[in-house]
Amino acid sequence: MIVTFGETMLRLSPPGHRRFLQADSFDCWYGGAESNCAVALAQMGTPARVVTVLPDNPLGQGCRNELRRWGVDVDFIRMDSSPGARLGLYFCENGVAQRPSQVVYDRANSSFSCSKPGDYDWNVILQDTKWFHFTGITPALGENLRAAVQKACQTAKELGVRISCDLNYRSALWSREEASLAMKEYLPYVDLLIANGGSAYDVLGMGPGFCSDQPLEDAASTAKEIAALYKVPRVAMTVRTSHSASRNGWQAILCEGKKVYISKSYELEIEERIGGGDSFAAGLLDGLYRGKDPQYCVELAAAVSCLKHTVPGDAHILSRAEAEGLIESDTIMPRR
């Protein structure tokens, strides 16, 4: 079992590539970084559990049902029946060509963000678990959730559960300084750290930061530095080359010890960018969970994420076989 911990929200997007100002209706999906990862894992046949809090109303029940529909274990989702219980929302305007996407959050005082460390019995939740996964979004939601993540990491280590963390910095939720202080507290527990050039710089102050055409060598150097400085056994980084909002180059690396493993590169024709990083994390975790070698893991992760960019909505709903088929296909482009 792989356990993920974070907030699942309702996403509302204007149809197609309409702007918010043009919207007279919204497409809706349920999603969140950690639950997206769990859905992707379940589609690849790896048992995955979501730990979160949802309001005990039709929206929260619909969210739980959607996760269950995709094969995710929902036994440790707590349903909040308190007055004012609410599901977090976010709005996404899909970018196209030279216009980037935009996100507006409406998640303050959600049932999950108001939860407390004592709401989670990690000794029970993490029983018979191989991996615990969280992202930097969860501790960004407040002191109580920072403490909950800390307790989860401590318990995981006591139980011999390995820990993965996606830095996943969100400037709308906290400052770089806050993120750096909090996330560095978790790094001694982490067995797999996932980042990109932007989050590595924003949270850890390492690397050149985000650029639209980051050399692969820069990412590899940054991953090695993070692994050495923070004693993280594995550091994975994605490298995105932004030709436009609709077309990106995509590649990934996995640093294990002093060795760096590099995936094949892809040219993405983007239908949906959200969830790309979450599916990348799922691909890595799926490979590691099954004891695969590092080269396979980074290839699978890059391919899973590549395919996710073709699927509308937050979650990856493709099989491992489809990802492996992409790895073996000739639809691979050299990086420019």
Give a brief rundown of this model:
By secondary structure, the chain is an alpha/beta fold. It has helices spanning 33-43, 58-69, 122-125, 143-159, 176-186, 197-204, 216-230, 276-289, 294-308, 320-328; strands at residues 2-5, 9-13, 27-31, 48-55, 77-80, 89-93, 102-106, 131-135, 162-166, 192-196, 234-242, 247-256, 259-262, 266-269.
Structural notes for this entry:
The chain is 35% helix and 23% strand. The chain has 336 residues and is α/β, with parallel strands linked by helices. Strands 1, 4, 5, 8, 9, 10, 11, 12, 13 and 14 form a ten-stranded mixed β-sheet that branches. Helix 1 (33-43) packs across helix 8 (276-289), helix 8 (276-289) runs antiparallel to helix 9 and helix 9 crosses helix 10.
Low-confidence stretches: 332-336
Radius of gyration: 19 Å
Q: How many extended strands?
A: 14
The best one-word shape is globular
Kindly estimate the percentage of residues that lie in beta strands according to DSSP.
15-25%
Query: What profile does the largest beta sheet have?
Result: 10 strands, mixed
The percentage helix is: 25-40%
Helical region count? 10
Structural class based on helices, strands and sheet pairing = alpha/beta
In whole angstroms, the N-to-C terminal distance is: 39 Å
The average pLDDT value, as a whole number, equals 92
Element pattern in H and E: EEEHEHEEEHEHEHEHHEEEEHHH
